[in-house]
Amino acid sequence: MTDTVLVTGATAGFGRAISERLVKDGYRVIGTGRRVERLDALQASLGDAFLPLALDMLDKDSLRGLPTELPEGWREVDVLINNAGLALGMDPAQSTNIDDWERMIGTNVSGMVEITHALLPGMVERNHGHVVCIGSTAGTYPYKGGNVYGASKAFVSQFMRNLRTDLLGTRVRATNLEPGLCGGSEFSNVRLGDDAKAAEVYRGTKPLLPEDIAETVAWVLGLPEHVNINRIEMMPVCQASGGLSVVRD
Ligand code: NDP
Ligand code: 8X3
């Protein structure tokens, strides 16, 4: 039986690349996001193996209703890819906008937790499933302006470790994929609200690409059922962590 995968944030970047790759690999994919016209365009190119689903990660009622609201034939979600997410701003904590912080927490933490809570019982009941989160190196390595975004990804990281523990004894797998600098998506455009500044983030680098993320997700899912990849940290060759710094008088 072909696995059904739900990919949040399929309208751009990683989520779109993951959806395209998994349909190509023979999975049935439910792709979600707010920009419905992009989901429809994806269905036009991927065909009936792709189901477009308008879903706002800040809409708790829709997330909670998912198990019963999904169309007939698509209700048994075997794999959940928690990809939808965003960063807003690069200012130091003391100069940020609290609404931006709340939106990051609402999307990256609360929305992710809600949809996982909604779909996990079905996986456990069927004793078959996999939850994959797209975390970030920002959840491990602090950097200036990373404040709440990095903290939201640290939450994802520990949530996934704890999920593994709770799922022990079931055949439901859990993986946190933690990429570093990745171009070819709208992440920096959304974060900085300025396309020229976003392009500057990648100037002179050869960043990871959404296809690299999709390749890794496809590998993690395709491993034999007894193998669980707990976490993967991946960076482009041109990136490494910065180490500690000191300010002197
Ligand atoms: P993009 O901005 O290209 O894509 C983000 C996706 O998330 C879009 O499909 C968007 O859909 C969706 N999304 C955002 N907010 C909501 C919401 N409220 N409701 C529903 N969907 C939402 O970014 P990336 O592809 O780069 O990022 C994907 C994930 O990877 C994020 O979790 C990000 O934090 C993480 N990541 C990114 C890295 C990078 O360098 N690019 C590195 C490490 C991790 P729509 O707007 O249509 O609703
Ligand atoms: C995205 C990578 O380094 O911009 O999660 O935080 S970074």
Automatic annotation (TrEMBL):
PROSITE patterns recorded: ADH_SHORT
UniProt KW keywords: Oxidoreductase
Keyword Oxidoreductase: yes
SUPFAM superfamilies: NAD(P)-binding Rossmann-fold domains
Origin superkingdom: Bacteria
Oxidoreductase found in the keyword field: yes
Family the UniProt entry places it in: Belongs to the short-chain dehydrogenases/reductases (SDR) family.
Protein name: NAD(P)-dependent oxidoreductase
